[in-house]
Amino acid sequence: MIRLFAFLMMIAPAFAQETVVAGLSQTKVSITAQFEGSEILIYGAVKRNAPEPEGPPLEVIITAEGPAMPVMVRSKDRRFGLWVNTGAVQIDQAPSFYAIATTAPLAQILTETEDLRHRISIPRAIRAVGVAAENLDAPSFTEALIRIRAASGAYGMREGAVTLSEDTLFRADVALPANLTEGDYRVRIFLTRGGVVIDSLESTINVRKEGLERWLTNLARQQPLVYGLLSLLIAVVAGWAASAGFRLLRA
Fold this sequence. Notes:
The protein has about 250 residues and is α+β, with helices and mostly antiparallel strands. It is built from eight helices and twelve strands.
């Protein structure tokens, strides 16, 4: 037993443990009337208890994920000159925002097995467990959702956007769009070697509406009748003001 313990102590340094230490430039984002988006700096370092191991290079993957919610995806087709809904699929959970930044092409630094385990890529982040039972062409609906949200800036992949210095220090910028969904945004950082995740770290960015936006949101949720009447009043006043302005201009 003593000899076995001594042998394990001798070979322990060969299995160098690498862990990630990271931080965010801000952990709270306030959505106000002047909010036009925000940029989050994600930075960190790799902590080792031994010299860097030989073999595949170290790679870093960073993901930022907004609140997930069910999504109904519909397909349209042209019938008799009109566009009509011809199919629909209910996706269980889809992130309202999802961004990936990496040090290299994702397919080269992450295996399919690890992607399935950690749900890192955009398709894996979308939970569409029961869609196959709803529609035989279900995968195309998921692809359509990704394509639409990528075009709007809600989903994005930036391969090579993470800078890694001396296999120790890393940083990346993640742009949050103006049309953010309120809630907690999860930021995950993965270290990989040979396509395998060797360590990960998770942080949270709190996104909340402030000022007038917060008051209107609470009013709409807590007193929808008052909110509806107020919206109608604002529309009437705006219409009257526009009409009065045109009359003054013509006079």
